[in-house]
Design a protein that fits this description.
Radius of gyration: 17 Å
CATH topology: Cytochrome Bc1 Complex, Chain D, domain 2
Order of helices and strands: HHHHHHH
Number of domains: 1
Distance between the termini: 52 Å
CATH class: Mainly Alpha
Number of strands: 0
Length: 143
């Protein structure tokens, strides 16, 4: 009987590269996808709509935007140590109600990994944490 080890190593490498590639989104395409989100969410100013504004969402603890009334599920999700990073946002956008059971977001989710990556790239433009990370990468490249 042949060993499954080489197969499992190859499969793991494919999964890792697919996940990393999914986060290489196009912010211009993401802006187009975000138009659906903009009915409820704002990235232009720190003003809540039906949903919380998404300025500085990357790096933020879920359930913490001042003045927005979150569901208990989302507040507990944040209190449990969650942080909105690219991976967490991607999982949430794919299935908001399944990822944080009991939250109030009515949107069913984005089914395309490309659309999810594009929206995350678009949101990153409005997040200081993402900009700080890019600046640090740039500094490291020049040293």
């Amino acid at each position: 009987m042949k060993s499954l080890k080489p197969f499992l190593i190859a499969a793991g490498a494919v999964l890792i590269s697919t996940s990393a590639h999914a986060m290489d989104g196009d912010p211009v395409a993401g802006e187009e996808v975000f138009r659906t989100c903009s009915t409820c969410h704002n990235v232009e100013e720190e003003r809540n709509k039906v949903g919380p504004h998404l300025i500085n969402v990357i790096g933020r603890t879920p359930g913490t935007v001042e003045g927005f009334r979150y569901s208990r599920a989302m507040t507990e999700f944040g209190e449990g140590g969650a942080v909105w990073d690219e991976e967490t946002i991607a999982q949430y956008l794919a299935d908001p109600r399944g990822f944080v059971r009991g939250n109030r977001m009515a949107f069913v989710g984005l089914k395309s990994e490309e659309e999810i990556a594009n929206v995350i790239a678009y949101l990153a433009q409005f997040s200081e944490t993402a900009e700080e990370g890019e600046a640090a990468e740039g500094e490291a490249a020049t040293e």
